[in-house]
UniProtKB/TrEMBL annotation:
Pfam families in alphabetical order: Glyoxalase
Keywords, sorted A to Z: Metal-binding
Domain called VOC: residue spans: 5-135
CDD domains per record: VOC
GO molecular function: metal ion binding; methylmalonyl-CoA epimerase activity
Superkingdom in the source lineage: Bacteria
GO BP, sorted A to Z: L-methylmalonyl-CoA metabolic process
InterPro entries: Glyas_Bleomycin-R_OHBP_Dase, Glyas_Fos-R_dOase_dom, MMCE/EMCE_epimerase, VOC_core
Protein name: VOC domain-containing protein
Length: 144
């Protein structure tokens, strides 16, 4: 068995400065470090959230659009990256705040197929899917 801890998810974006601002402003992330591979015109920004997770935003001119799913079920028709998920204390207000900040609805808040979990999906301004999960009831049940 290999031991390790999940470190980050990488998203390819067309507007690196704009998406950096969006993730910092909406999710409370901060720039951890920036890098450039000038010989291939490739730039990136690693963002860090106070809760410890990281999102790496990557930009290379000439990149083409990949998955642009209208919902998570459609995203499952394409192999590879689908979405990343955030465990939040309450799905509904976070969903509303992200929509107000420019995210688009992909699945409104509702019960998850996982018992005791509430979920929703939004897409960031470039169409990357973000799942919101509230596992509060599950954690309370496990702690009892």
């Amino acid at each position: 068995m290999i031991s390790g801890r999940f470190d980050h998810v990488g998203l390819n974006v067309t507007d690196l400065p704009g998406m950096t601002r969006w993730y910092c402003d909406t999710l409370g992330m901060e720039i951890f470090f920036e890098f450039a591979l000038d010989h291939v015109d490739f730039h990136g920004v690693m963002l860090r959230h106070p809760d410890g997770y990281h999102i790496e935003l990557l930009h290379r001119p000439g990149a083409t659009t990949g998955i642009q799913a209208t919902n998570p079920v459609e995203a499952a028709l394409t192999l590879g990256y689908s979405h990343f998920a955030l465990d939040v204390p309450e799905v509904d207000p976070v969903y509303g705040a992200l929509i107000a900040a420019g995210a688009s609805d992909r699945m409104s808040p509702r019960p998850s197929p996982e018992p005791g979990v509430r979920m929703a999906f939004v897409a960031d301004p470039e169409g990357n899917l973000i799942e919101l999960l509230d596992r509060t009831a599950v954690r309370m049940r496990e702690a009892a």
